Amino acid sequence: MEKITHLEALMFSAVLENCVDQLAILGYVMPVPQEDKNKVKEMIQEELDNNSPDLMSAKQESGETVTSTALKTTEHKQQQGKTEGQKSAEKRTTRAAKKLKKIYADRQYASDVITVTIKNMEELGTFSSLTDANERERAKKNKFYDILIREEKGKKEIKALQKQLQDVKKQTDKDLQNRDQAIDRLKDKLQENTAKWNTESYYMKRSTDLQIHLTQRKCSNAEMALEKEIQNLKSKTDEEIQLHMETENFLTQEYQKVKDKLEYWMEKYEKDTAAKDEETDDLKTLKAENLETMQRFAKECLAFQTTIIIDRTDKEAKRKQIEQEALEQKSALKVQAWWKGTMVRRFIGPYQELEKYLKEQLAEKEGGKEKSGAKR
After folding, report:
1. Could you read off the pLDDT of 139-164 as tens digits, one per residue?
2. Could you give the dihedral angle defined by the CA atoms of residues 233, 234, 239 and 244, in that order, rounded to the nearest 10 degrees?
3. Region for 349 from its dihedrals, namely left if φ exceeds 0, alpha if ψ lies in -120 to 50, beta otherwise
4. Which of 113, 111, 143, 112 lies closest to 128 in space, CA to CA?
5. Is 27:104 a contact under the CB 8 Å cutoff?
6. Which one, 20, 265, 335, 362, has the greatest CB density within 10 A?
């Protein structure tokens, strides 16, 4: 870089000194605590003393120190037992304080760079420190922007991968759940079929054994029954022959006795028949008397029934009349209510004055709105 003349250096120095003075005034005006100002100044001054060309590192460290101290103080305050409204107010105040401290650090950094530039111009006649600081600042901003772009791309890729992972996980869980359900169903069916086959085989075996046992038992019982029946038939045949002989003797004796009794009962029959004919005649006369009594009672019952029916019809007619009167009264009330509502809505009869009153009120309101519009 070409060196500038002493006169140009003085002119540039005057302009830069004016900028330093304006930055100093701005530093005094800014509402930043004095302790933070002193800390920033000390750190930037130490960095400039150690390595005056490396101003970028001084600016970065000063900004990071300010932000870290502000974060520590805000975290300590937020950990106190305060309400949500107070916490939100504190967050707003801490953000404003961070911005002010950052602006103050940038102002101090610019002032220090300009001061070093003035010194180089007076001593060496060059302002390379200013251009170097600008280049470093530009490189840092480009690097910072690249980091932000890469970070945004990484976040988008991470979100897409997370979404894909969640979808794959959901599908896998769903498939596993469906497989588990299918396995459970198949296990249940297998258990049911196994239990069913075991019960059927056990039942068939028992049934076969029982049928064989029952068949054998039936056959043995049938043989024993046939033998007993043969013996019984033989004994019965002998008994029948003996009984036949005894019965024949008994019947001859009984025939003679019955013949005697028949003659006795024929005579008794004739006597009893005559007595019963007399009783039948008496019963017929009694039946005629009872029939007359029953007819008389039937006539009285018919008269009572007609009286009861007439009374019930009269009561039913009175009840229907009362219901009809109540229904007519209810209908009349509804018609009256409808007519009164119609008169009020259409302003008929005595409600014409109400229509005039409402129109006057509406006209007054419209007139008031027009006056207010005219005033405006």
Report:
1. 888 888 888 888 888 888 898 888 88
2. 80
3. left
4. 113
5. yes
6. 20
- Give the CA angle between residues 295, 299, 302 to the nearest 5°: 135
Asked if 66 and 101 count as a contact pair (C-beta separation under 8 A), the reply is: yes
**Dihedral in degrees, nearest 10, Cα atoms 343, 347, 350, 353:** 160
Q: Which residue, 21, 41, 23, is CA-closest to 33?
A: 41
**Dihedral sign (CA 302, 307, 310, 313):** negative
Rounded to the nearest 10 degrees, how much is the dihedral formed by the CA atoms of 93, 97, 103, 105?
-170
At residue 215's C-alpha, the angle toward residues 210 and 216, to 5°, is: 100
Q: Can you give the pTM of this predicted structure?
A: 0.30
Give the Cα separation of 349 and 325 in Å (integer): 30
Question: What is the rounded CA–CA span in Å between residue 290 and residue 294?
Answer: 6
pLDDT-based confidence at 113, cuts 50/70/90?
confident
